TrEMBL record:
Native organism: Bacillus timonensis
Origin: domain of life: Bacteria
Pfam family for this entry, one: Lactamase_B
SMART domains: Lactamase_B (SM00849)
Protein name: MBL fold metallo-hydrolase
Species lineage: Bacteria, Bacillati, Bacillota, Bacilli, Bacillales
Length: 214
């Protein structure tokens, strides 16, 4: 398997494509520019089998309907955000881009709370990592040694927590008790910016220093 990062949409949110040798793939967080994304997939001869969302803020969902117009595939999301795709107030687009609200007609499938999660030939360890949003999740692919962390953890930073349902304390708890327990060499594939590693963030992320697990 191999992954690729494709910044898309109004905030250049990182969509990720994870593909296997059979030219099947899953799409993480298709944030916008749907025609660009679908053209890339067709050019590479990839057939998507699912859309996996780390959370449902507007900048992570903008190309869902363009993808579903090309491929009839499931969209997976954590239950606490199952209604966000159709609600611009919940997904934030009503406030950040008024008059250009970003919505999706998809009826999403609900992810398990945590544990092993498989879709087709793709298997992940699913972690519930709220704090940036109430339904944020991260997908750990052991085979490649990567974790798709959404907006929980970035290179040198963490997700904002001033949006509805956000909690700074909860986000730090999620990062320390879930993400930082992964092998230090694990590559962190974030929702924005370049990739990093668990080791690098443990050593130098200023937002994580001095956190008390008790």
């Amino acid at each position: 398997m191999k992954w690729q990062r494709i910044p898309l949409g109004p905030l250049q949110t990182n969509a990720y494509i994870l593909a296997n040798t059979k030219k099947e793939c899953v799409i993480f967080d298709p944030g916008g520019d749907g025609q660009i994304l679908t053209a890339i997939l067709r050019k590479q001869g990839l057939t998507p089998t699912a859309i996996l969302l780390t959370h449902a803020h507007f900048d992570h969902i903008g190309a869902i309907d363009d993808c579903l117009a090309q491929w009839k595939i499931p969209v997976y999301i954590q239950e606490k955000e199952k209604n966000w795709l159709k609600d611009s107030a919940l997904n934030g687009s009503a406030y950040f881009i008024p008059g250009q609200e970003i919505l999706s007609k998809a009826d999403p499938d609900i992810l398990p709370i945590e544990g092993e999660f498989s879709v087709g030939d793709f298997t992940f360890d699913l972690f519930y990592t709220p704090g940036h949003s109430p339904g944020s999740v991260s997908y750990h692919c052991k085979e490649l040694g990567v974790v798709f962390s959404g907006d929980a953890l970035f290179q040198g930073s963490i997700g904002r927590t001033d949006l509805p349902g956000g909690s700074h304390e909860q986000l730090l708890d999620s990062i320390h008790k879930k993400l930082l327990t992964l092998p230090e060499e694990t590559i962190v594939l974030s929702g924005h910016g370049p990739e990093t590693t668990i080791e690098a963030e443990m050593d130098s992320n200023p937002f994580l220093n001095g956190f008390n697990l008790s």
